[in-house]
User: Which sequence fits this backbone?
């Protein structure tokens, strides 16, 4: 290529950087129009194209005199036309829009959602747009658009009579509308102010408004509005969005051929589209290249190279860095609630509290747990069946394209079946053979209670025409799977300020929009017991106090017959043991001793609404209704030393210009006053002074509950959590009647995490799927990733607690080495058994016990004594 071939582009680039760009031609430079170069001013003269008549009344009088003058008919017709135009102008001028406001025009941009670490999560809004300043747009792109739309842009006053005539002659000669009569200024006027109707009155209004626009704004301002506003198809508006969508490039990487292709789209975004109509778009591109060559924007060599360059346009929609549909939808709904529906097109940027690493871990934990449960409970048959006779790959591709996309589970159609294998068509010509081994679990186990479609008597689990799901294994092989019928939720928040770090409302947002983490209300079961026990500790009970684990005796519950999970009664047992083993009857008796209203009032400090605390003894068993987020809010009080914090998920909202509209300033508990760790966790910097969280409960009570929750993990129903091999995790299982809900609520120094599993139709999970298995497995999987490489946190007793050695059976202080150590509140040291003491007589000596013959009563008590020895 000759060395001087780039000179026009160099001159244009220099002029563009100087802020007064206008195109130059390679053969002969044209003078810059005086109006295009002068600085825009808001103090322009009022727009008065002509003033033939001052008012309609004077115009009519003048016209009547003219008719009586006896002039010829042609002059009368001309006068009549001028009069009509004058009347139209006088009536239209007051209604013309104030085009000066376009300087600060708010172009529609989508709402964008990001994680706390900057990961792109979602985009909401009809229009994809990224407004840019005219100085940032390369000259070659501007040249392409001027060549395509308005080559005399810098030489006319908004209405180009010469251009209109040329377009008319071109249309007469070719029969095609290859050249437009509308100028760029007219298009700006039309797009911003006028309706799409095609009437003579609207066209005249467009001309007047365009002339007004040219007087109010500079050429550069008009061109910037045009390039940021035009439509490019596929929801892309503006040149910046178009470059990213079709070529996935930065401005400075766009070639001459690509610039011409982009310039050809706005005239007909569907028929001139390089993706949907590539041949038509290529013809349009080459026409624009020819015009650029004729106008001197490119030389002959550039023209020939560009004309023969194949186009590589394709859709490059911005990929999400983080797929978190439930949180993204929460953001969208919250923005609409506070700012209205219009906020979705104002270009707001919302930064959430979500941590990308933790969100991915949460989603993996939920999906893995639901798939494992689903596999434990057998195959439920195909999602649908399709008659494949006569169908080719094209028809099957179209069918599969309409199937709901579910993460990690690819849809396929069974096309061939034998005793040893099944062939599955995955679309786009891809076929996969599943071996008998990969099908064995589905052949041998069938969930007839939830089977979909007609029952099958053959040994094959699948049949030709079945719509099935396949999943890749760790070894990159395929295996038969299914979209889980069971569902689940997991939420994890920072106990110090309530920031939601991870939230999953179901297996996949694409499969179910219902957000179970926030919108669901289910009974928490035994995971609610810590709040009842906290009320008892506040009223004077201690972890050493004895509680009756036996049938409840109260006249108000004659028709209610609650039982323990094992249908046994252990009699008087220590609070710690009753809590660790989640004894229902002991918890009910404890609540009865504390008092319903007193307990309810105390538990409300954790942020619970009355629905979560039914005024009855069943409250001890968690028969109220809670969402996982609300349960996390309550457990955060224990985790941070007794302070109530409110969960939140939006950290900051910025407008399209980067100005901060909102910044969260949550009430915060002290981050290093409770748990001690090797290094303080990193937290989002705030420009606002921190607000101290309200103290909800005595820190001594928070410490004692934490100690009891650790007992659940070490010796109780949460033993599976020991797989994490960490001494700083605690939690409580929860299971409702007939195992319809499986919960595990637990925490560590930096995370309060709630896991839930169940059916949306309140179906039974099945035997063995209690909170200690189904939900706890999900919780452990998440916490394993969340706490990776994190130091073990330690918790020291707060002031006001004293250590005492107590008898493991009687709950009283002892000096025996067989006693266990308990931390109790200093003022209750002398009343360890609590306000409603249950006393057990001193057991006989070992020698007397050996001589005494075993009685029937002793045999009945053997099971509880064994449990005492174990715990």
Assistant:
């Amino acid at each position: 290529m000759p060395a001087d071939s780039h000179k026009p582009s160099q001159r244009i680039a220099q002029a563009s950087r100087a802020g007064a760009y206008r195109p130059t031609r390679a053969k002969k430079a044209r003078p810059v129009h005086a109006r295009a170069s002068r600085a825009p001013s808001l103090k322009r003269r009022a727009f008065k194209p002509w003033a033939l008549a001052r008012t309609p009344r004077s115009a009519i009088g003048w016209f009547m005199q003219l008719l009586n003058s006896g002039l010829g008919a042609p002059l009368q017709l001309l006068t009549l036309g001028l009069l009509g135009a004058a009347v139209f102008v006088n009536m239209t001028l007051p209604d013309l829009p104030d085009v000066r406001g376009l300087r600060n025009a708010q172009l529609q941009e989508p709402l964008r959602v990001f994680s706390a670490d900057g990961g792109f999560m979602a985009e909401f809004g009809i229009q994809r747009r990224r407004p840019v300043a005219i100085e940032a747009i390369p000259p070659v792109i501007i040249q392409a658009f001027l060549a395509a739309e308005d080559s005399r842009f810098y030489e006319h006053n908004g209405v180009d009579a010469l251009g209109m005539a040329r377009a008319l002659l071109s249309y007469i000669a070719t029969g095609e509308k290859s050249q437009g009569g509308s100028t760029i200024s007219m298009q700006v006027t039309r797009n911003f102010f006028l309706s799409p109707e095609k009437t003579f009155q609207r066209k005249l209004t467009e001309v007047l408004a365009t002339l007004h626009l040219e007087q109010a704004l500079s050429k550069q301002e008009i061109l910037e509005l045009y390039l940021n506003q035009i439509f490019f198809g596929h929801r892309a508006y503006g040149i910046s969005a178009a470059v990213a969508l079709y070529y996935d490039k930065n401005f400075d990487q766009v070639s001459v051929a690509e610039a011409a292709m982009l310039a050809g789209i706005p005239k007909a975004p569907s028929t001139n589209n390089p993706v949907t109509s590539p041949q038509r778009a290529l013809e349009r591109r080459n026409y624009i290249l020819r015009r650029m060559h004729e106008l001197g924007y490119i030389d002959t060599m550039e023209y020939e190279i560009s004309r023969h360059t194949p186009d590589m346009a394709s859709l490059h929609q911005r990929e999400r860095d983080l797929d978190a549909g439930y949180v993204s939808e929460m953001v969208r709904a919250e923005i609409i609630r506070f700012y209205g529906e219009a906020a979705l097109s104002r270009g707001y940027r919302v930064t959430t509290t979500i941590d990308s690493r933790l969100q991915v871990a949460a989603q993996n934990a939920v999906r893995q747990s639901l798939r494992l449960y689903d596999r434990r409970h057998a195959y439920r048959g195909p999602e649908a069946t399709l008659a494949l006779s006569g169908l080719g790959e094209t028809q099957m591709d179209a069918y599969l394209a309409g199937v709901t996309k579910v993460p990690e589970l690819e849809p396929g159609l069974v096309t061939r079946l034998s005793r040893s294998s099944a062939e599955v068509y995955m679309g786009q010509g891809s076929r996969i053979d599943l071996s008998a081994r990969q099908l064995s679990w589905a052949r041998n186990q069938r969930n007839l209670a939830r089977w979909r479609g007609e029952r099958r008597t053959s040994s094959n689990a699948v049949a030709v025409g079945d719509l099935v799901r396949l999943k890749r294994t760790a070894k990159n092989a395929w295996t038969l799977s299914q979209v889980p019928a069971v569902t689940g939720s997991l939420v994890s928040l920072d106990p110090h300020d309530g920031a939601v770090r991870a939230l999953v409302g179901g297996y996949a947002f694409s499969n179910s929009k219902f957000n179970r983490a926030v919108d669901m209300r289910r009974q928490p079961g035994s995971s609610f017991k810590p709040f009842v026990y906290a009320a008892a500790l506040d009223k004077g009970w201690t972890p050493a106090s004895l509680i009756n684990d036996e049938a409840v005796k109260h006249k108000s519950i004659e028709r209610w017959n609650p039982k323990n999970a094992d249908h046994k009664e252990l009699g008087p047992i220590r609070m710690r043991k009753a809590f660790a083993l989640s004894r229902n009857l002991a918890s009910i008796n404890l609540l009865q001793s504390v008092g319903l209203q007193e307990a309810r009032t105390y538990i409300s400090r954790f942020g619970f609404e009355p629905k979560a605390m039914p005024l009855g003894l069943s409250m001890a068993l968690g028969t109220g209704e809670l969402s996982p987020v609300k349960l996390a809010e309550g457990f955060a009080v224990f985790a941070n030393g007794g302070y109530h914090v409110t969960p939140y998920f939006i950290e900051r909202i910025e407008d399209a210009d980067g100005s901060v509209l909102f910044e969260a300033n949550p009430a915060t508990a002290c981050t290093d006053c409770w748990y001690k760790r090797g290094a303080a966790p990193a937290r989002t910097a705030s420009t606002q002074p921190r607000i101290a969280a309200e103290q909800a409960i005595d820190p001594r009570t928070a410490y004692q509950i934490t100690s009891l929750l650790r007992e659940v993990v070490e010796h109780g129903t949460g033993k599976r959590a020991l797989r994490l091999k960490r001494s700083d995790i605690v939690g409580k299982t929860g299971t409702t009647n007939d195992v319809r809900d499986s919960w595990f609520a637990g925490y560590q120094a930096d995370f309060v995490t709630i896991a839930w599993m169940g059916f949306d139709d309140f179906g039974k999970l099945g035997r063995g799927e209690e909170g200690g298995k189904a939900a706890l497995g999900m919780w452990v999987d998440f916490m394993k990733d969340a706490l990776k490489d994190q130091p073990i946190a330690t918790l020291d007793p707060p002031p006001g607690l004293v250590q005492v050695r107590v008898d493991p059976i009687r709950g009283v202080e002892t000096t025996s080495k067989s006693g266990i150590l308990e931390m109790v509140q200093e003022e209750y040291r002398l009343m360890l058994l609590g306000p409603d003491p249950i006393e057990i007589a001193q057991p006989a000596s070992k020698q007397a016990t050996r001589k005494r013959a075993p009685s029937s009563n002793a045999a009945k008590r053997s099971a509880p004594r064994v449990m005492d020895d174990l715990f």
